[in-house]
Write a sequence for this structure.
């Protein structure tokens, strides 16, 4: 079982085999997350899917304080190395790396990726995390893609963290198809409500997920669950 704590937008802290993994930290610029005490977040690893501000805003601050290892694609890791972050590990699509909590596979995402200063963030991606406590897919920002079927063929996915806000990413309908592709009935929603472009009707998306036989989790900021 894996513990998830939600900090808004696409930011989750996962506890896997005693290690804390922070995904796409965007907290201090997010008005919805104003009550989150960022100074108390001390991950062992920070995993970043792509270079947009709403996924990297707090990487440097949290990494310097915690000493966490940054794991991302080559371009994003190199950009942060230019800011003198030294505890880093670069990856690229199709690659797998074993860490002390489990294995990380960097998989495809269909999106864009530009870092806050206009530098290229390389190609966006997602992560499949495999451990003896569970296996999950963190999609990052992406459109629906047939590549997700390869994930379902290669892994027994316990749950998938999927964007559902539409406009910039999948909507709930495509997220349900993505869950089918990767072979899970459990969806943790992300990338919704933070901005007017991605505001959703929560009751409507819950109903659509229910009708499709999916269990949809829409966490409150600061809420923790175990899956």
């Amino acid at each position: 079982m894996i513990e998830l704590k939600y900090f808004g937008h696409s930011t989750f802290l996962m506890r896997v085999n005693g290690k804390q993994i922070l995904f796409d930290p965007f907290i201090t610029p997010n008005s919805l997350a104003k009550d989150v005490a960022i100074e108390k977040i001390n991950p062992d690893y920070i995993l970043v899917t792509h270079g947009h501000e709403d996924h990297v805003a707090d990487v440097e601050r949290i990494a310097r304080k915690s000493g966490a290892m940054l794991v991302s694609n080559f371009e994003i890791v190199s950009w942060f190395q230019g800011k003198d972050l030294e505890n880093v590990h670069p990856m690229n699509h199709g690659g797998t790396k074993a860490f002390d909590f489990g294995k990380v596979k960097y998989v495809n995402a269909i999106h864009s990726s530009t870092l806050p200063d206009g530098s290229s963030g390389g190609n966006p991606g997602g992560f499949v995390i495999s451990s003896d406590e569970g296996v999950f897919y963190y999609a990052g920002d992406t459109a629906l893609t047939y590549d997700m079927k390869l994930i379902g063929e290669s892994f027994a996915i316990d749950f998938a963290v999927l964007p559902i806000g539409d406009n910039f990413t999948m909507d709930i309908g495509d997220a349900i198809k993505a869950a089918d592709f990767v072979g899970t009935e459990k969806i943790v929603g992300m990338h919704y409500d933070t901005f007017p472009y991605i505001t959703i009707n929560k009751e409507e998306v819950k109903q659509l997920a229910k009708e499709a036989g999916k269990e949809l989790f829409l966490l409150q900021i600061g809420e923790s669950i175990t899956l």
The chain has one domain: 3-226. The longest strand covers residues 125-131.
